[in-house]
Amino acid sequence: MLNAILLFLILFYVYLLKFLAKILLSLYLSPIFRLFEVQSNWGVKLSDMISSVDQMSSTMMIYGLFGSAIFFLMAAMYKYALNKKHELKLNEIELYDTKTSFISLLIMGSIPFLSVILSIIFRNSVLGGILGGFIYWLYIPSFIISSRKAAKKGKYLSLIRKKERLLNISFYKILLGHIFYQFNFKDLMIKTNY
Questions:
Q1: Contact partners, residue 65, CB within 8 Å, separation at least 6
Q2: Which of 56, 76, 161, 174 could form a disulfide with 129 if both were Cys (CB 3.0 to 4.6 A apart)?
Q3: How far is the C-alpha of 64 from the C-alpha of 182, rounded, in Å?
Q4: pLDDT tens digit string along 79-125?
Q5: In terms of Cα–Cα distance, which of 160, 21, 5, 169 is closest to 80?
Q6: pLDDT tens-digit profile of 19-56?
Q7: Hey, CA dihedral for 35, 41, 45, 46, is it positive or negative?
């Protein structure tokens, strides 16, 4: 059920991204084309696409709602996997990766949701669209902070995993050495360095 909802949200979200990309490209490329006197179809006026301040705020609200819904839905999928960790037989590293992904998806979903809140607060002013768009720059510091915290624990878990692998290899070497000794394969043991 969650997969079907996710596909539905992504289909509509891609359409919204197309519209938003067209707005941004016309904003940023039109002055460049005019500067170099290049004729292009990107010379569409922003006023032709958005006729009022309310429309820009509404665009940012819709974009933020769908964006946060996608991220929160994916976080719900990870939470579902965490609840089924015994059935899925997740080891410590898989459990850590699942928890880390869950937290990062919550962070990723909260930023578009914050954009929606700012777009609602400043709906009737130009700030609604501007703040609603610039709030997405919060992704950069939030990813830096969360990835640093995750990296510390991830390094610790990878060291534990390496020690476990080394112990397993040592155990198998001892076991094979014991088997070779039992069957008097001492010559074979010497050749294979057991």
A1: 112, 113, 116
A2: 56
A3: 69
A4: 999 999 999 888 877 888 888 889 999 999 999 999 999 989 988 87
A5: 5
A6: 777 776 766 676 676 676 666 555 455 555 566 666 77
A7: negative
